[in-house]
Here is the input.
Amino acid sequence: MTAATRYAKALFALTAEHKQQAAVTAAVQALGTALSDSALATSLANPRLTPAQRSQLAAGMAKAVQAPQVLANTLGVLAANNRLACLPAMLSAYLALTDSASGITHVQVSSAAPLTAAQRTSITQTIQRYTKSADIRLNESLDARLKGGFRAFFGGQVWDASLAGSIARLETRLRNAINQRHSQ
Here is the structure.
């Protein structure tokens, strides 16, 4: 488990304990948007920041997004422990925890051609039955290397229904059969 994941789990537990999930999640999303600015993200990882500067940076971020106290305190702990560089990963991990607790599964779908509405529905329903998630959110991208079909990434799993994947699996089976035959 990474440091970012540990901090995210601690923040998640604290927000539940203080019943501030909605407010903290909104502030985390706002902070994530702010961190998409490369100058801010770069300054988080600057090893030349003094402890006082790190603390000021954390307090400034908390104030800018009107962070609830539990998030402001977490940012302060990150600064004190010289862990501000892991903030983007911590924010992502926190949002993944809140989505999981809410029954939301994010799925990255790569396909050789744009998916039709029927394909989108079929993929969503299949993954929903498999994961038993209340809500499936697809993020689609095109990948011409797949040649046809799709690849879905979710919950640490890969579902490969692409032509390129089928060809690779067939190639592996043929090589194994040939190797077994030669070893006899």
About this structure: The chain has a mean pLDDT of 92. The longest strand covers residues 104-111.
